[in-house]
Every structure is written in C-alpha cells, then in structure tokens.
Design goal:
Elements lengths: L2 H8 L4 H5 L8 H13 L3 H11 L6 H17 L5 H11 L4 H16 L3 H9 L8 H17 L3 H13 L5 H14 L3 H11 L10 H11 L2 H13 L7 H14 L3 H14 L6 H13 L3 H11 L5 H16 L3 H12 L5 H17 L3 H14 L10 H9 L4 H9 L6 H20 L3 H12 L5 H17 L3 H13 L7 H16 L3 H13 L7 H17 L3 H13 L5 H14 L3 H14 L6 H14 L3 H14 L6 H14 L3 H14 L6 H14 L6 H11 L6 H14 L3 H14 L6 H14 L3 H12 L5 H16 L3 H13 L4 H17 L3 H12 L8 H15 L3 H14 L3 H16 L3 H11 L7 H17 L3 H14 L3 H14 L1
Helix pairs in contact: 1-7, 3-4, 3-5, 4-5, 5-6, 5-7, 6-7, 7-8, 8-9, 9-10, 9-11, 10-11, 11-12, 12-13, 13-14, 13-15, 14-15, 15-16, 16-17, 17-18, 17-19, 18-19, 19-20, 19-21, 20-21, 21-22, 23-25, 24-25, 25-26, 25-27, 26-27, 27-28, 27-29, 28-29, 29-30, 29-31, 30-31, 31-32, 31-33, 32-33, ...
Length: 995
C-alpha cells in the first residue's frame, strides 16, 4: 500500500460519502481530491502549487491536514529543499494525530532509500514505534540500526538490531544478519554464530551467511562443527556467496585435524575457483596435504611456490619438495631442493636431514663428487649424526632405544631397502609408538602403528603382542567385532599356553564377548583365563574374570556352576568378594536354597557395610524373608534399608515390602503408615498405584475408608493422565532435555516449576533444570537449582544433584566446599565409575586443602580402583607421594615415586621424576639426582613442561656442583629447543644469573 493512501486514510476522510453531497462540486474537497490525483500521476510540482493555493482557503481541520501532508510528500518527491521542513512541521504541528507516525515513516524512508542515513536517523526518531504493528516496528528498528551501521557506528546500531530481532518478524532476519556481522567484528564469536544461524533461516540470507559462519567456526577453533556445517552447504546446490572462502576454511580445518586428503581437496577447490590467492603459509599447508596423501606431483605445484623465500617456511617447503621429487624419481630436482633446504639455519633438524638426503640423492643419480662433498660436510658438522654412511646397523640399535619413536619410524621409512636389523627395529619401534597412542587413548593412530609393526613379523612374541593390543585398542574404542577378530588372531597362532599374552587374550576376548552378550563364548574365555591362576601376574584381572565367569553362568541359568564360582571367589578372598556374596545369594535364591542365600546376604551386610551392593543385599534379604513367610524378619530387613539408606532407589519398594509384611502380621497401623509414606514422598514411584490399592484395602479392613478419598485425590494430582496439561508440559521439557536442546529445556522446566511448585515431579524438574544450565555453561544457575534440590526430601535426584555440586565446586577450585558433597557422592555411589570419580575428587580436594593424610587414604583407595577411569593409578601415586613429602615422610615418598616413574610413562610420571630428583637433590645427593635425570628422563620427552623442569633442575644441580659451564650449556639448550614458553622464560632468567 502506498504511504500517501495510508496517511489520508488516517485523517478519516470518506470520499465516497462526501461525493454524494450536492455541495461536492463547489467545495474545497473537490480541489483536494484533484490534488491527490496529481500526486498519483506523479505531477508533484503541480500538486505542491495547488495544495499551497488550497491552504489559503477556508478548510476543515481534516482537509487542512490532508493538503499540508500532500504538499510535504510532493516536495520530498522532487527533492525540494523545503520538503523535509514541511514534513517535520506537519509532524510537530499534529503530534497527537495518528497520521504523524506514518508521516515520520514516510520521511524516514525517503532519506533511507536515498542513503541519507543521518537524516533518516533523525526522521525515524520522530516515529512513535510503540504505536506501530509489530511487522512495521521490526522494519523501523532494522532501518534505524542499518542507518547507524552504514555510518560505521556499530555501538549505536546494535541495540536497534537487538530490538528488531526480538519481534520475530520478517524484517527480524535482516536484524539478525547485521547484528551477527557486528558481533563478528567485535570478536563476540558466540553471539555472531547464534545471530547468523538465525539469519540463515531466511531464503535471502541463506546463501550469504555460510562463508561468515565458516569463518566464525574457524576463528573459534570448532573444526568439527565447521566441517559438519560447511560440507553439506557445498554439496546441496546452493548458489553461495564467496564460496571460495568456504573451501579455504574447510581446508584449514581439515589440515588442523590432520585429515590431509580432505584438506588437499579443499585447497584445490579454492585455487580452482580463481577468485583469490593463497598466502604462503596456506600454500605450504596445501603442499604438505598433497604430500601426506602421496599426491607428489600436485605437492610440487604448491611447494615450489612456498619454497621461494629464505625463511622457515621456505626451508621446510624445500625439504618436503625434495622428498616429493624423490618419490617421483626426479633426482635432479630432488637434489636442488635438498640443497636449498640445507643452506637455511631456521630448523637444524631439517638442515641436517637435508644435507644427508642431498648426499643420498646425488649417489642415486651418479653425481659422486657432489655426494662425497656433502658426506664430508655432514661428517664434519655432525660427527654423531644419525645418518653417518657407515652406521646403519648402529643407527638401528639407537633408534630402538629412543623414546622419540615417530622420528625413528620416519627415518626408517625413508630407507628403501631395509636390512633384517632395520626390520627388527621397525617392528619394535612401531609397536612402542602404538603403545604411546594406546596410553593416550588415541585409538586410530594406535591401530595404524600396530599394523606398521606387523609389516615386519621378525619377533613372533611381538607379533602376538601386536594382535593382542589391536584387540585391546578396539575394545577400548568400543569396536567389539574388530576386537574379537584381533584376539582370535592371537589364538590362531597356537602359542604356548604359558604365554602371558595368550592368557591376557582370554581375558580381553571374554569381555568382548560378554559386552556383546555372547555369554557362552565369554564363559569359555573367562574359564580358560581363570584356569591358569599360577601365571596371572595381575590379581585384579583374575578376581574380575572369576566374577564375570560367574555372571556368564548366571545369565545362562547354569545356577550350580554360577554358585560354585561365586563360592570360589569368596574362598579365595576375591577383591570383589562383596559382589560374590551378593551374586551367590541371588543364585541360591533361584535354587530355592533360601537359608543359604540369607547367610550370604548376612555376611555381606555385616562384613562390608560400605559395599556398593549393600542396598541390593538389604532389599534382597527382605524379599527372601517374604518368600519364606518370615514376615517379622522381612519387616526388619526392609527397615534396615529404609533407615540406613534413605536416598536409595529401593526405598519405595522396601516400604511396600514392609507394608505387605506388616499386613500379614496384622500390624495394620504400620501398613497404613508405609503406604501413606510411599504416596506422600514417592508419588511417582512405579509402585505408587500398588500402594494406593494396598492403602484402600487396609483402611477398609480397619473401617477407615473415609481417609482414602484424600489420598486418592492427591494420587490423581501427582499422577496426571498422559493427556493432562501438567504431564504434557513436564514430558515436553524432558524431551527437550534429552534432545540436548538445553536452552529450550531450561525455559520449559522454569515454567513448569512456576506453574506447579508442589508437583510430584519437582525433584526431577529441578535436577533436569540444573543440568540443562550446566550444559549451557551457566554454573551459577546450575548451582542454584542443585542447591534447591539439596533442600528437598531424600531422593536419587537429590543425590545426583549433590554429586554435581561437588564436581562444580571442585572444577572451580573451591576445594573445601566440594569435600562434603564428594563425601556424600562416595557414600551413595551405585557403580564403580561413580565411586572412582568421587574418590578422585576427594583425593585432589584434600590435597589442595592440605589434608594430606586424608589425601593419602583416598589415593590408596583410588589405586584399588585401577582402570575404572583413565590414568587414575598414576594420578593416585603422584598425589600420595606429594602428600607424603608434605608430611615429611620422605622415605615413603621416594618409594612411591620410584614405583610411579618405573610403571607409568605419563605426564604424572614426568612430574614424579621431577619431584623424585628434587627430593634427592634436597638431601644433598646431587650425583644421584643427575643420574635419575640421565637414566629416566628420555621416556618423558613429549611432556614439554615437566621435561623442561627436569632439565632446569639438572642445571641447578650443575651450579651446586660448581659446573657452571655445563649449567649454562644446559640452559642454552633449553632456550633453543624447548617448545614451552614458560620453560624458556625460566631458563633465560636463570641464564641471566650466570652471566
């Protein structure tokens, strides 16, 4: 609709009615209508002239406003200097008239579309936006923001865009787009992503947004998100703006993830778009990507460009270019490339390797004099160099004994024809590197290097180990079919039955079958494993396997065999003896050997009051007494559970069991009380309806049926039908939570709790609300909900909330506050992982709060949970040793640290070596401290911080021994070679004290 028609309509004119009057032909209205016709015909000058003359006549107020407005509109159309003034005068003179708002819009739009944004801002300021419909209001907010945006005043523009976004109108997409752009410019990546994602829902922006989002995800370092977002955009046929930049961001992301095939593909796509040029660093990465996928010809296309300058990139490019030409058998180009790399000093490792490879290439192409010169240079500059021409066999020995396995493998990979000694070394080093990846939980590289090791099956025992660890890695990665295949490969080799690897294979294969529910196969493997008790070094594995063997029999309903195994575990003092007692009782119950079953449960309850299975045992005991019609004993057992474990999920069922037992004993008051407790405190328990029926029956028997109606009404309120609003609201919010739409879930649960503050689902809602906030990163709100739940009656959700509070406080380093919550978590743990996480937290929190004896206790308990969570044992040993040191138990600390360093080549082992060497130095034995460093540090070279601290300590030792030259040389080496900025700074500071 044209604005002038809107304006005139707002003046309240009714042309049809007026034209029926006999006075119309001679009235000013006829002239006014004529002038409007002139405007419609775009005869704006005539319209201005006639309306000006008309205003000299006697007009009604409405007619006068119409003439003024028509004249102002016409003046704006012909860019008359007085046009803005006429329109502003109209607005000021008729400020309360409905037409004023639309007049302001007309004036603002006039300047806006003329790109006179400063005047547009002033004009829109005259508009009373609160009088506009939401679509128009959103449009005005956008235009105000856009006007400021075009004037580069982002701070003023942003609030208008935010207001426009909130209205959710078509124009809001424009506001989202420019708001996202401003956020991106201001470095607010999260807001930029959110706004642009919303803008992309508009067809207009769908093709404009992707390259911006790709840039933001890359800036954020969210490479997986960038890939999952951008890849489909490039393949769905969209006509994307700046598509080439999306290719470039994808290439950079894939390169960062070391997916060189996809990186190469996208670098090529950028180049092929012919809409931009790569920088030298990107050209180098493109070349490396092609090189890594063995596309050597394409690699040379990139690398010869990035090799053009004499800098670090140039040196590296020349080096890889040489290898690319070498693989292409272009020996002349390879020679010149290696020579170029050897002339640069930026990377000494590359420099050394380039000289050696330059010599080797010249030998291959028959340029003997050049090769001899290069070898002479190499021998002179690197007398102990790993590429000495006559040292291949000695080199293989050195490579096997180094911890820099990747470098060793890389060097051996370059040897085209590997001697038997090199093949043996390659097998070992590849296996060792696979073990490093296995330790670091990098499953795919671990498998790749185990396969490398298997390429040269020189040592048969190592072949068995490689297949075994392929099983272990795949099992850890939850690739159970692959794990089973690898374990079976070990057994197909028919090795000696006394081989430790074979026995471990039975254990691993047993678990792989067990976790795929192939219980008969699992049974066979666990049986084989436990038959060789005398050769099993790891008692924990033996104990665990024995229990799993019992489980296999139990699941297959082979109760006699299951009972025998669980009894054997008890007799042998199995580490899981509490579990064995519980399972034996369950089996005996199935065998109708209830008195024996009760004996097992009594033993568990009395001997292991802190067992994870204590609740199960108490409940099971009650159930068996009920089967035996020993109602008094059953009631007592259920009471023990209810009183000792008020947070247990078994409580509502124990209450039901006690109610039934007391009913049988004619203790009707207690029966009624228990049923009422279920309905009062656990109205949504699965047995709530059973409790309701039991209550009705018991009250009726007692002649108290009148009491039932109140509980019936409350039950209906707590358990609304599936079609009720309350139930629907709760389920909708819960659905959003489980779909990981946490922002929507928070709003859903907030609204639910406001609407139904006394709901029976209150505990669930509070927990889900708190966890939703936690998933969104809002720890304050999460804590508020969890602490609100802490004040609620006992329930499993309350326990889970306290676990969360402990974890949050621990992460915030509020160690003292975390301890009571973590203690509650330990007391109520229902699984080994839950127990292990809580014990780990208590170990750390007590250490940080200087409760060292408690820290030692929890560290020892953590050691007993070895393998439940990653790196728990080395962490426990480290905390234990540091606590012992703080308590001046130095001898004990040294023993603990010695075990840690010997058994765990992890970051904790690296720190442990530093602490052990430091303790040795503190007691005055500098020589022993140095020997520890020389003998043990090589295994920790990859942990740059602690490796650096170890050698800083070595420098201190040299100073104490009066060997300042050695100290200075050590510190200079750290400055030159360390990759850790803090370590380099520490070394530089120490160097200053020696000058």
């Amino acid at each position: 609709m044209k604005y002038h028609l809107v304006l005139l309509a707002s003046l309240g004119l009714s042309f049809e009615a007026f034209s029926q009057s006999s006075l119309y032909q001679t009235s000013p209205q006829q002239t006014l209508d004529h002038n409007l016709g002139l405007f419609d015909k775009q005869l704006f000058t005539a319209s201005i002239y006639d309306n000006t003359r008309l205003l000299d006549q006697r007009l009604s107020n409405t007619q006068s406003k119409s003439a003024e407005l028509n004249r102002a509109m016409a003046a704006l159309q012909i860019e008359s200097p007085d046009g803005p003034g006429l329109m502003k005068s109209y607005i000021y003179d008729h400020g309360n008239d409905p037409s004023v708002t639309t007049a302001g819009l007309y004036l603002g739009d006039h300047f806006f579309y003329k790109r006179n944004f400063s005047e547009a801002i002033e004009a829109y300021a005259l508009v009373k936006t609160d009088q506009l419909a939401e679509p128009s209001r959103a449009d005005v907010f956008f235009k105000q923001g856009y006007s400021y945006f075009q004037m580069n005043d982002y701070a003023s523009a942003a609030p208008y865009f935010d207001q426009g976004k909130a209205l959710n109108q078509p124009a809001s997409f424009d506001s989202y787009y420019y708001s996202g752009f401003i956020a991106m410019e201001n470095g607010n990546t999260a807001k930029a992503i959110a706004d642009l994602q919303t803008a992309s829902q508009s067809p207009y922006y769908a093709n404009k947004v992707p390259y911006l989002l790709a840039a933001l995800y890359y800036r954020q370092g969210s490479y997986d998100q960038l890939i999952s977002y951008a890849e489909p955009k490039l393949t769905n046929g969209q006509n994307l703006e700046k598509k080439e930049l999306i290719y470039l961001y994808l290439a950079e992301a894939y390169y960062a993830k070391k997916n060189f095939a996809k990186a190469a593909e996208n670098y090529d796509a950028f180049i092929n778009s012919r809409k931009g040029e790569l920088g030298r660093e990107e050209i180098y990465k493109a070349g490396i990507s092609q090189f890594e996928i063995k596309n050597y010809q394409r690699a040379t296309d990139y690398l010869k460009v990035s090799a053009s300058a004499t800098d670090e990139i140039g040196q590296a490019s020349s080096y890889y270019l040489g290898h690319a030409y070498l693989n292409l058998e272009n020996y002349q180009f390879a020679s010149t490339s290696f020579q170029s790399a050897s002339k640069s000093d930026f990377n000494q490792e590359i420099k050394e390797e380039a000289i050696f490879n330059y010599a080797k290439v010249n030998l291959q192409k028959g340029s003997f004099q050049s090769a001899i010169s290069a070898l002479d240079e190499y021998i002179e500059n690197y007398p102990n160099g790993k590429y000495k021409a006559d040292a291949e066999s000695l080199l293989s020995e050195a490579l096997v004994n180094t911890s820099d396995y990747l470098r060793a493998i890389e060097q051996m990979d370059r040897i085209t024809t590997k001697s038997p000694r090199i093949q043996e070394a390659y097998q070992k080093v590849s296996f060792y590197q696979a073990m490093v990846y296995y330790r670091d939980q990098k499953w795919n590289p671990a498998i790749a290097y185990l396969d490398k090791s298997l390429k040269f099956p020189v040592d048969n025992n190592l072949v068995l180990d490689a297949h075994f660890y392929k099983g272990e890695v795949n099992s850890a990665a939850n690739k159970l079919p692959e794990a089973i295949a690898a374990y079976q490969t070990v057994l197909r080799q028919r090795p000696s039955g006394n081989n430790g690897t074979v026995n471990s294979t039975y254990y691993g294969l047993g678990y792989a079958y067990f976790n795929t529910q192939q219980y008969a196969n699992a049974e066979e493997q666990f049986r084989r494993f436990t038959e060789n008790r005398q050769i099993i070094a790891n008692k924990q594995q033996y104990d665990d396997a024995l229990l799993r063997l019992g489980d296999c029999y139990y699941v297959q309903k082979q109760f006699a065999q299951a009972a025998s195994i669980f009894q054997r575990a008890i007799n042998e003092g199995n580490a899981g003896v509490d579990y064995a007692f519980y399972r034996l009782a369950v089996v005996q119950n199935f065998q109708t050997r209830n008195q024996e079953a009760l004996g097992q449960l009594d033993a568990l309850i009395s001997r292991y009051p802190n067992s994870l299975y204590i609740e199960d045992a108490l409940y099971q005991r009650g159930q068996i007494y009920m089967e035996e019609t020993s109602y008094q004993a059953a009631s007592i057992s259920y009471s023990d559970l209810i009183n000792s474990k008020p947070n247990s999920p078994f409580v509502p069922y124990a209450l039901e069991g006690r109610a039934v037992a007391n009913f049988s004993l004619q203790n009707y008051e207690q029966t009624i009380s228990d049923y009422k407790t279920i309905l009062d405190q656990y109205p949504n328990a699965q047995n709530a309806e059973t409790a309701l029926k039991g209550l009705q029956e018991t009250l009726s028997l007692q002649g108290r049926s009148a009491e039932f109606s109140d509980y019936l009404a409350r039950y209906k309120g707590s358990n609304p039908s599936s079609g009720s609003v309350q139930s629907l609201e709760f389920e909708a919010a819960k659905g959003m939570y489980f779909d990981k739409n946490f922002a929507q879930a928070t709003r859903g649960f907030e609204n639910y709790l406001k609407s139904y503050p006394q709901s029976a689902q209150r505990a669930d809602a509070l927990y889900f609300l708190g966890d939703s906030y936690l998933q969104l990163g809002d720890e304050e709100q999460a804590l508020a909900q969890f602490k609100a739940l802490e004040r609620e009656p006992a329930s499993p959700q309350r326990i889970r909330a306290m676990q969360k509070i402990g974890a949050i406080e621990l992460a915030r380093e509020n160690y003292a506050q975390a301890i009571p919550y973590l203690e509650t978590s330990v007391e109520n743990a229902r699984s080994k992982p839950e127990e292990a996480e809580a014990v780990k937290g208590l170990m750390l929190a007590n250490f940080e709060t200087r409760n060292y004896q408690q820290a030692i206790s929890y560290a020892e308990r953590m050691s007993g949970l070895d393998g439940v969570i990653p790196e728990s044992s080395p962490m426990a040993l480290l905390i234990k040793a540091k606590s012992q040191k703080e308590l001046n138990q130095v001898a004990q600390a040294e023993l603990t640290l010695t075990a840690l360093v010997a058994d765990y080549k992890t970051v904790q082992g690296a720190e442990g070596l530093y602490v052990l060497a430091d303790i040795t130095q503190e007691r005055g034995d500098v020589t022993a401290s140095n020997e520890l460093i020389f003998d043990q540090s090589g295994a920790f070279i990859n942990y740059d911080y602690w490796y650096g601290r170890i050698f800083l300590l070595l420098a201190d030792n040299y100073v104490k021994a009066g060997e300042e030259f050695q100290a200075k040389a050590t510190l200079e080496s750290i400055v030159e070679n360390s990759t850790n900025a803090e370590i380099k700074q520490m070394a530089e500071s120490k160097l200053q004290t020696l000058k």
